[in-house]
Amino acid sequence: MADREEQIYPVQFSEQEARIKNVRSHPVTLKFKDVTYEIKTKKRSGILIGDGAYSKSKVEDDSNAKVILKGITGIVQPGEMLAILGPSGCGKTTLLTALGGRRLLGGQLITETLMFTALLRLPNTITKEEKINRTEEVIGQLGLTGCKNTIMGGPFIRGVSGGERKRVSIGQEILTNPSLLLLDEPTSGLDSTSAQQVVSMLGAFADEGQRTVLMSIHQPASKLFYMFHKILLLSDGNPLYFGKGNDTMEYFSSIGYSSSIAVNLSDFLVDLANGVYLDDLDEESRKDVKQGLVLAYKNNLLNRLKEEHKLEVDHNNGLTRYRQMDKDTGQWPTTWGQEFSVLLKRDFLERKHESFSVMLVGQNVVLSFLCGILWWKSSINHIEDQIGFMFFSNMYWSLIPMYNAILTFPQERMMLTKERSSRMYRLSSYFIARNVADLPMELALPTLFVTITYWMAGFKPTAGSFLTTLLVTLYNVLVSQSLGLAIGSMIMNPRTGAVLGGIICQAFLLACGFYIRTIPSFIAWIKYISQNYYIYKLLLGSQYKNEDLYPCGPNVSCRVGSNPTIEKIGIGNEVVSVAALGLMLVGYRLVAYIALKRLRETK
């Protein structure tokens, strides 16, 4: 989809939105001095990609230290926009990460995405009407009016273009009128027109409200280069230049690096950062160019930058004070109830496309009728068939919800980390809203399954037995989902989590005695921590009593309680089974919550 070309208006605030403007009314001067960053790596037989990240490879024990940033110094004033330039792997993203202290939604409309951000991040001192107006204003500033009712899209759903998606992401940040804005390659993948729109909007945002804007950018066009107030050029983690954008060419000419032909200035700088001068690609020459540029920076620019650090009067003591001010308030923009309400609505809108799909419902209906036909009008006279169906239902409605739940938090990890770092909401409101939003579809499908199969399979034709079977099946779904959430939140890797979940489920099924009658005592205890064991007991209890009779031979009747399978599992003690499942339901979800909380604390 081609980017829509719309005018981006300067950032201006009406009187009605003065309170929004004052949400972040303190200008921030960002000063960073001798920023060094190194990571401990291990020898690998793979390829290094990006800023210290490795592709899949064999890990050996020999540890090494890799220095990513090597003494970066700079200062950015309110109203200024700094561009961090350099080739891939030079440390641009790592620097932004170090300065920011922290490492869109597919099915929603652009307006909904920005509206949810406004409702969560703007404080209660601002009315809902003002938040709506602020959202509409940002949409206009970003040039998104023509596509505001288009869904964001995702891997399998076509939505907005790449340029529009990036502008929405930026809009989520500028909604709250931040004093400091850090962006990692906001123009990457955009055409020249879209890139110019984004940079122009960010420049206006910095100028109008005295904000400090930093961004990494790979290789901007000439007309973009001169929009930046300051430039920081990096090469292999070393600073080569820091200063005004208009003074860049003059500086490099003064140290002996000038171009006699017309050339894109950003291309020229990236070539220098790669050690290429006058198209000389010799490896030794490139090494000499890099060393010469690093030495020239230290001799000509570094001392001046350090003097600026000493002389600069920082109104709020820089980034440290900015962070501390944010931290010391100890308050959230909205109440817990408001967070829960907004997040629940967002989750419902996000999941309705995937949950209530025709394919998913159709699959469940087909399976239900297939099971109904296979077990058609079975009765207590075919008790082995009936308990076989109960085993299948028990297993199916424990595996499917568990595997679905394992994917929940790993898929949302990046979004959760980003939004929690921005203090959009409490973890508890997100966790509970996510759990509640899953309930309709998680419970609707097994309800449909039981409703179809129960009567076709010929189970007890009483309302009490039917409702008991339905409630036990739904209980199974909730407990299995809890187990999946716990596994997913602890592992945070879908593939590894699925493997671990499969091992746990198989261990539960094997130890319960479904496949073997004589289980070694040292492993028999596993059945008492298996939800399948208790669910099976409750399903059997919904249809039979120990004293019921069934034909076990020609003209011979036996007690249900003496059936080898039922005798092994046992009927009765329903209260114990319900209580054990309740402990699992709460316990697994508590484990999931704690794991997510630890994930946040380790960032």
TrEMBL record:
Superkingdom to which the source organism belongs: Eukaryota
Keywords, in A-Z order: ATP-binding, Membrane, Nucleotide-binding, Transmembrane, Transmembrane helix, Transport
Entries under PROSITE patterns matching the protein: ABC_TRANSPORTER_1, ABC_TRANSPORTER_2
Intracellular or extracellular location(s): Membrane
TM segment ranges: 356-376, 388-410, 431-457, 463-486, 498-516, 575-596
GO molecular function, one term: ABC-type transporter activity
Domain ABC transporter, residue spans: 30-261
Membrane topology label: Multi-pass membrane protein
Main location: membrane
Record's protein name: ABC transporter domain-containing protein
Species name: Papaver nudicaule (Iceland poppy)
